[in-house]
Amino acid sequence: MNELKILALDTATEACSAALQVGESVYARWEEAPRDHTKKILPMVQALLDEAGITLSELDAIAFGRGPGSFTGVRIGVGVAQGLAFGAGVPLIGISTLAAMAQGAYRLDGAERVVSAIDARMGEIYLGRYLLQDGLMVLDGEEQVTGPEAVAQAETLSGLWFSTGTGFETYADLLSGLADELRPCPAARLPAAQDMLPLAKAAWLAGSAVAPEQATPVYLRDKVTWKKLPGRE
């Protein structure tokens, strides 16, 4: 059987990253570059392909960070992934940004129960709870966009949970009581394409890859509510 080859890329948050799995070998690039995603992502991809000694056309699939995250960042990631996939003739696999962060907490800290929270601006956070099953982070409930005060008023999670993401940095006081014991994992505060690879491999084996034109972003927030100036309601 040929080695499975999956490329992953993510630009949904302040981080810009790409990773490549060829069989059991993993190659990765990561950089925090809030305004330079369009400049950095394609050179990262090419560097990985060169390092592994393969071409785009040899890939089995391309995974991308489908969101939630920055509207612009998510669109960039989807667009770049679609362009590469069309050119290479390979399918796409969308991976949740929040799930990738939870998977990173497992890789870096051995976390088995993770709450991921991204600062969504405008007084809200993107939030998801994940449980480890067979080495993969699986969503517990639904991903949501919500005010941190609503999370703080919800039922407390029992036992030890790990927390990661910019949402916990921005609203630390409000979210500190979310679980009986909440242990920070700052190393996974932003998603990394490397942590999308095991999730993408599982999706590929499950037959969940889609044609490039069917790839869709996940914003969670359906519309942006602007605070209007007095007298302009």
Automatic annotation (TrEMBL):
Localization annotation: Cytoplasm
One annotated Gene Ontology cellular component of this protein: cytosol
Keyword vocabulary terms for this entry: Cytoplasm, Hydrolase, Protease, tRNA processing
Keyword Protease: yes
InterPro entries, sorted: ATPase_NBD, Gcp-like_dom, T6A_TsaB
NAD recorded as keyword: no
Coiled-coil spans in chain: none
Gene Ontology BP terms: proteolysis; tRNA threonylcarbamoyladenosine modification
Domain of life per record: Bacteria
Domain Gcp-like stretches: 31-137
Main subcellular location: cytoplasm
MF annotations from Gene Ontology: peptidase activity
Family membership: Belongs to the KAE1 / TsaD family. TsaB subfamily.
Protein name as it appears in the record: tRNA threonylcarbamoyladenosine biosynthesis protein TsaB
Species of provenance: Aeromonas molluscorum 848
